[in-house]
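Quick sanity check, Putative glutamate--cysteine ligase 2:
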Amino acid sequence: MAITVGVEEEFLLLRAASGEPAALAGKILAAAGGHPGRDSGGSLHQELFQTQAEAATGVCATLADLRAQLLEARILLADAARAEGLDLVSVGTPVLAEAVPDLSDGERFARIGDLYRGVIADYQSCGCHVHVGVRDRDTAVAVMNHLRPWLPTLLALSANSPFDRGHDSGYASWRMVQQSRFPGSGVPPWFDSAAAYERQVDRLIDCGVLVDEAMSFWMARPGVGVPTVEVRAADAAGTADEAVLQAALTRALVCTAEAALARGREAPRADGQTCAAAVWNAARHGLDGPGVDVIEARAVPAVKLLDQLLAHVRDALADNGDMAEVEELLAWVRRAGTGAERQRRAATAGPEAVLDLLRDQTVREKSA
């Protein structure tokens, strides 16, 4: 039986007339009702700001089930938004944004706002988080160690946030640049046990830089309250297909890591600063430029790292029955470009063309 997988997607709500973020998430979520996959644990949530909404799939065994839940939730939220004169878009950062948005209600969100102040003033960033089921937290942490070299490549593949408040940032993932302002961001350290991981998180909380254990910005961590590895590398996926691609590759990476652990293979201890350089390159260039091989500690083309990732997980993809679909989706991304590349092409016709692209692809049923 295939290892289970689930995806959390964060979206922006935009005013259809202007393309500016709209602080109406509470109303839209109430109108949408329950998640289409609620029988398997799917749910809809508020995010940090009232301009954002989150849809979390239930536990899925197949990519077909995952895709269906992703699309149904996107369409449900988009329909609820449209009834209020809004658009739902899946993008890492707003294309246009001027006003500081309202925080969502709740004591925890208030604590986050009080702690981080100006750092979150323009942080309407949205990600695509993949959960993969594991046996226990010690397994989750051991798997995380094996994932560390590949997290920057997952980011490069997902890059979908080139714009910042109406301007081209020059980065493929401005979201990751914004995220790097926070403590506990980037590739996580190498941990020798779940207890060591928890001690480090507790230390950061005690030092006053994290609100709680769910506030860590590391690109991978043990699931909070669920027996999973949670990979948080990716920008919000422009299309549901790209979210499926992230899920399939992440599940295959976890399976490959577990197979290595079963053979007694310890994860490589990639240097933290080299990992930081790899994240920066992935955020700056996406797939269209240099990346960093963190094991060899040298620059290589980002597309070569993507090829290496695919080779690394090929057996797991085959075992999960996902190989053909992953190859098809990767071929589409190579042909069409990452979300950031597609947005920049659209921008040659002006900001409205970018917004049209985002509106369309968020609810498109299949990448063409």
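Posting the structure with no commentary besides this: The CA atoms of residues 10 and 54 lie 4 Å apart.
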